[in-house]
Design a protein that fits this description.
By secondary structure, the chain is an alpha+beta fold. Helices cover 38% and strands 29% of the residues. The protein has helices at 2-15, 39-56, 84-96, 98-107, 154-171, 202-214, 216-225, and strands spanning 26-34, 60-67, 74-81, 114-124, 141-149, 175-182, 192-199, 232-244.
Length: 251
């Protein structure tokens, strides 16, 4: 009897482990273009106030990053919500929060901090890990990758990632943060896969992708999956290397 109880406990543990969990939250990827000369002020506002107030209104801070080369003064960040309805409610109560209104007013006495905001609503793929921000010392180098699939090829692309690419990424030392597809097919989103990787540093990033692309299994998988044409549009793969801010939960 005791043996069967131990086996039952083990099975419950196995099937409730993080590896067996599915990411079901609603995500929002936001890009802020700071006004000229205002990026440091924007970062200070997030560091001292915004992230904390977000959490008070049910927004989970996942990560905050700056492009490695940041000519456009961008701040990129990722939030998670229990659902889209929760997202709408959170932003409404956040915007009406008296503390936030006071902070925004005080920080913008000499002008707006943000010139433009871009927002993309995302849902996780069925092969995405549960998105869990982790702190690393020293901070990792993050990579935001966007794949624009060829017409009618998104499902094939997702299948290749699910069945092969993610395993090969792990083999070559790439940490996989999450995989998503846009909820709304607007502003050129179309058939798109968006994902974030983490690397120890720039050298590790270069070495990992060099080894991945030379991997015989990847070469075979890619050739087999593209017998009827590329799964992505020409020029449809974009990569952006990002450095976590000092207040980012994912670092």
């Amino acid at each position: 009897m005791r043996f069967f109880l131990l086996m039952a406990t083990l099975l419950v543990s196995l099937f409730s482990s993080p590896a067996a969990q599915t990411e079901t939250r609603f995500f929002e990827l936001r890009t802020y273009y700071a006004a000229p000369g205002k990026l440091d002020d924007l970062l200070s506002r997030f560091r001292s106030h915004t992230t904390r107030i977000f959490e008070q209104h049910g927004m989970a801070n996942i990560g905050y990053w700056l492009p490695e080369t940041n000519a456009e003064n961008k701040l990129i960040y990722l939030l998670a919500f229990p659902s889209r309805e929760a997202r709408e409610k959170s932003w409404k109560t956040f915007s009406a929060d008296p503390e936030w209104q006071a902070v925004a007013k005080e920080s913008e006495r000499t002008g707006k901090l943000v010139g433009k905001v871009e927002s993309v609503f995302l849902e996780a793929t069925d092969f995405s890990p549960v998105v869990t921000p982790k702190t690393s010392a020293p901070p990792q180098l993050y990579e935001l990758r966007t794949y624009h699939a060829a017409a009618g090829k998104l499902e094939n692309l997702l299948a290749r990632f699910k069945n092969h690419t993610t395993t090969l990424f792990a083999r070559h030392g790439m940490a996989q943060i999450g995989y998503w597809v846009p909820v709304e097919k607007k502003d050129g989103a179309g058939e798109t896969l968006i994902y974030i990787l983490a690397h120890k540093n720039r050298e590790a990033w270069a070495e990992s992708f060099k080894a991945f692309r030379a991997d015989p299994e990847w070469i075979k998988v890619k050739a087999e999956s593209e017998k009827d044409g590329s799964l992505t549009l020409e020029g449809g793969v974009k990569s952006l290397l990002m450095i976590p801010t000092d207040f980012s939960p994912a670092s």
